[in-house]
Design brief:
There is one protein chain. This protein is of the alpha/beta class. It has 2 domains: about 220 residues, Rossmann fold (3-Layer(aba) Sandwich), CATH 3.40.50; about 80 residues, 5' to 3' exonuclease, C-terminal subdomain (DNA polymerase, domain 1, Orthogonal Bundle). A 6-stranded mixed sheet has the order 3-2-1-4-5-6, with helices on both faces. α1 crosses α2, α2 packs parallel to α4 and α7 crosses α8.
């Protein structure tokens, strides 16, 4: 029996990406809606191209980073606040999602990535169900396995859209999906202000993970490495930094790892693709001046009559 598909849309990542990549676009009231447009187009094209049986959209809660900031107060400290012009568009995007009768999830204290991790963990328990995550965030590659792919769209065709499976993660990153967290724990992440280990660059982090498999295994063997000098590149300042910054390395691991245990109220049946209020959806599209996107809406024989009435 072929597996059915649960499509998970990373709302925050797609909205944020569209805001900075698309030219200004306003609706009939003069509101900026370029991010909503890019998000909506990606949502509808993904729905058309993947033909999923289940669908949901995940958003970041305004207190999404609270849990990680409690563990590390400087988490995302260098990231500027979301511009008001973008923040206002998140609410509009949620109206679009509601008009399409698509379940949406957000939860205080948990980032969108954590909720996606939880949804994936639920899908993984279903025998004939797989999932695809549509996002612009490569942090989610850590979730890829034989039942999970990550699709990063590129409608500009500058890089080309890629659907990452286990083999493609290994090809492009040089490590397997389950090692992405270990890699980031050593390297750090400037965008999230995850410290990592001082002096460890991308090439060194990659070599360490490939040689030892995981952060935990590296530190289990560090004393033996120092004693036997059996890894010629782990010496001097690198060895000293690894020893002195062990606590930071494991803190970075904790910050980078997606929490798949979010206490989310979830019912798989409620995520089944359902019909939507076409009059409401088309009215919102009309208000937003998204007439070009109406052709991507799921069709039935009533649509033509409705469109003629509204446009």
């Amino acid at each position: 029996m072929p597996k059915k598909l649960f499509l998970i849309i990373d709302g925050h990542a797609l909205i944020y990406r569209a805001f900075f990549s698309m030219p200004p676009l306003t609706d009939k009231d003069g509101r900026l809606v370029n991010a909503v447009y890019g998000f909506t187009k990606n949502l509808l094209l993904s729905l058309r191209d993947f033909e999923p049986q289940y669908l949901s959209v995940v958003f970041d809660h305004k207190e999404a980073s609270k849990k990680r900031k409690e563990a590390y107060s400087l988490y995302k400290a260098n990231r500027p606040k979301m511009p008001k012009e973008l923040r206002d568009q998140v609410g509009i995007a949620k109206e679009v999602v509601d008009s399409l009768n698509v379940p949406k999830f957000e939860l205080a204290g948990f980032e969108g990535d954590d909720l996606i991790g939880f949804l994936v963990s639920q899908v993984n328990q279903e025998k004939n169900l797989k999932s695809t995550i549509v996002t612009g965030d490569k942090d989610l590659l850590q979730l890829v396995n034989d039942k999970v792919t990550v699709f990063i769209p590129d409608r500009t065709k500058k890089r080309g859209a890629i659907e990452y499976n286990v083999d493609l993660v290994k090809k492009f990153l040089g490590i397997y999906p389950h090692q992405v967290v270990d890699y980031k724990a050593l390297l750090g992440d400037a965008s999230d202000n995850i410290p990592g280990v001082k002096g460890v660059g991308a090439k060194t982090a990659l070599k360490l993970i490939n040689d030892f498999g995981s952060l935990e295994n590296l530190y289990k063997k560090l004393e033996e490495i120092e004693k036997n000098n059996n890894y010629s590149y782990i010496k001097g300042k690198l060895l000293q930094n690894l020893k002195e910054q062990k606590e930071k390395a494991f803190l970075s691991y904790q910050l980078a790892k997606i929490d798949c245990l979010a206490p989310l109220d979830f019912n798989l049946k409620k995520c089944l693709i359902q019909d939507y209020d076409k009059v409401r959806a088309l009215a919102i599209f009309d208000q937003l001046d998204f007439k070009s996107l109406t052709s991507y809406l799921p069709k039935d024989r009533l649509d033509a009559v409705i469109e003629q009435t509204l446009f």
